[in-house]
Design brief:
With 529 residues, the protein is mainly beta. 7% of the residues lie in helices and 41% in strands. It folds into 3 domains: 202 residues, Cupredoxins -  blue copper proteins (Immunoglobulin-like, Sandwich), CATH 2.60.40.420; 137 residues, Sandwich (Immunoglobulin-like); 136 residues, Immunoglobulin-like. It has 6 helices and 37 strands. The longest helix has 9 residues. The structure holds CU-O-CU linkage and copper (II) ion (CU) (2 copies).
């Protein structure tokens, strides 16, 4: 049974029937509470995009010494002129930052004191970074109000676009939604070579772009109150923020821009495309979760699930001066087919006015005057050695639905339970399989990056994007830490569990739909030997 409320405004009745997962309920369209921010309407894109630079919110902080980051309750105007309670990580190292974009060189040491000034427990997790387990922000490391946590570890990551966010036990979804997340940029030779050859400058032509969907109450305050249905399927917003700006626009020169796109949403999946009117423009994928891929890949669309990053180049010179180009999410089949579990009485319906799979705008780019700058992209961006598969241990990671809970290998999260051990230095191939009955899950690994080697039994909308061998899409290339697994699909990933950390290390595997994570779609695994 298709459970999410059907908005005929976004998806025609025929499109819904064509999903073939049952009959759609006809529900009256709810009025849009903050009409000027309805992202479906292109006319609404009137707020200047917030561009991270210097100090202040999302200022770029080149880490040169120890930092003290506080987790604190604050006020922030997401909707213009409407202050909302918000959670922030202020940092004061000379300049004052909130949720700084941390930037560091691979191999450097990160020293952070986290001070919990919230009224509830919290902890920071460094998403995508290979850290000792003790430094990983495991929910077992959660600190009480008033307490501090000392992070101290060496960066062991390729250059790329990573991020950090709260991982408080059972509170991740709410705290991340309310603000506790930002970027972590790692620099290396590959990154510098790219920046030089395409003439990129962070904050000018190289723009971190976090996409998040939120709900707001009548006063314009951030709203988060999942009912049973939303706790089970994931919370959706109906106002779409790019760098915390609702319905943002940005004027661009007729040249190539780098957008480091992070899906920082709790549950929403986006199908990203650039459109000039009805015409799709091409863009170039240059990186994924764990840094640059080997060669630039031209595309007109790509999926991005919560937790994933897509590093792209977009040539705004494709459009003429004065033209508007929209970064959009194209319509897709949400494939939410949770069977009887989702139709239990008292579960409620999704309260978002924007259904999963709806078509809407994210960011408007207005092409400015000036001579077109044509930049030649390097043919090679990086070298990625494939993980040798011979002799690798095979392991099944089975996602399932039991009652109203999504499980991994039949388990729901228990803090002290280790689901399995892997041997230090071993290589494994995991077959992550998702049953037909259920929904898509972005599966995330702590501690190590992996390589996607194959997609099997992909649904049509993914099979159609499989431009690479073994059913892989452009979002699967390079080094990954999060991979979207659609209903009925099996995704095979290769992991090399070699590291230089002494002793046993306990990390986790979980769904990055944050409501699923908090509901326990998460297991511990341990690297031993
Ligand atoms: Cu970004 Cu354990 O998560
Ligand atoms: Cu993570
Ligand atoms: Cu999930």
């Amino acid at each position: 049974m298709l459970k999410r409320r059907a908005l005929f405004h976004f998806l025609g009745a025929t499109a819904l029937m064509a999903t073939g997962v049952g009959h759609a309920k006809t529900v009256a369209v709810k009025p849009f509470r903050h009409y000027p921010f309805d992202p479906v309407d292109a006319e609404n894109f009137l707020q200047k995009l917030f561009i991270p630079l210097g100090s202040g919110p999302f200022g770029v902080l080149d880490v040169a010494g120890p930092l003290t980051m506080r987790a604190t309750a604050a006020s922030f105007s997401l909707l213009p002129g409407k202050p909302s309670p918000f959670l922030l990580y202020p940092e004061q190292s000379g300049k004052a930052y909130q949720n700084p974009i941390l930037r560091m060189e691979n191999g450097a040491n990160l020293k952070v004191t986290l001070r919990n000034e919230l009224a509830e427990p919290t902890i920071i997790h460094w998403h995508g970074l290979h850290t000792p387990a003790k430094m990983d922000g495991h929910p077992a490391s959660t600190i009480a109000p008033g307490q501090s946590f000392e992070y101290d570890f060496k960066l062991r990551n390729r250059g790329g676009t990573y991020w950090y966010h709260t991982h408080a036990h059972n509170l991740t979804a709410k705290q991340a939604y309310n603000g506790l997340a930002s970027f972590f940029l790692v620099e290396d030779e590959d990154q510098r070579r790219l920046a030089q050859s395409v003439d990129l400058k962070l904050g000018e032509t190289d723009l971190p772009l976090v996409i998040q969907d939120k709900q707001f109450d009548g006063q314009g305050r951030l709203h988060y109150q999942p009912n049973g249905q939303e706790a089970m399927m994931g919370w959706l917003g109906d106002i779409v923020l790019a760098n915390l700006t609702p319905n943002a626009y940005q004027t661009v020169a007729p040249r190539t821009y780098r957008l480091r796109i992070l899906n920082g949403s709790n549950a929403r999946i986006y199908r990203l495309a650039f459109l000039k009117g009805k015409e799709r423009l091409s863009y170039t994928v240059i990186g994924t979760d764990g840094g640059l891929i080997e060669r630039p890949q031209s595309t007109t669309e790509a999926f991005i699930a919560p937790g994933e990053r897509l590093d792209i180049l977009f040539d705004a010179g494709q459009a003429k001066a004065g033209a508007s180009v929209f970064l959009k999410s194209l319509p897709f089949d949400p494939m939410e087919n949770e069977g009887d579990a989702g139709s239990m009485p008292g579960m409620g319906e999704s309260t978002s006015r924007l259904d999963m799979g709806a078509e809407f705008n994210i960011l408007k780019l207005v092409v400015g005057e000036g001579a077109r700058v044509e930049l030649k992209l390097p043919a090679e961006l990086s070298h990625i050695a494939p993980i040798p598969l011979a002799g690798a241990t095979k392991r099944n990671i089975k996602l399932s639905l039991q009652g109203m809970n999504f499980l991994i290998n039949g388990r729901t999260f228990k803090m002290d339970e280790i689901a399995f051990d892997v041997k230090r230095g071993s290589r494994e191939v995991w077959s992550i399989s998702n049953p037909k009955l259920g929904m898509p899950h972005p599966i995330h690994l702590h501690g190590f990056s992996f390589q996607v080697i194959e997609r099997l039994n992909s649904p049509k909308q993914i099979a159609g994007l499989a431009k690479f061998d073994k059913g892989r899409t452009v979002s699967d290339l390079g080094w990954k830490d999060t991979v979207l697994v659609w209903p009925g699909e099996t995704v095979r990933v290769a992991i090399d569990f070699s590291h230089d950390l002494p002793g046993d290390q306990t990390y986790m595997v979980h769904c990055h739909n944050l409501e699923h994570e908090d509901a326990g779609m998460m297991i511990n695994y341990r690297v031993i030997g």
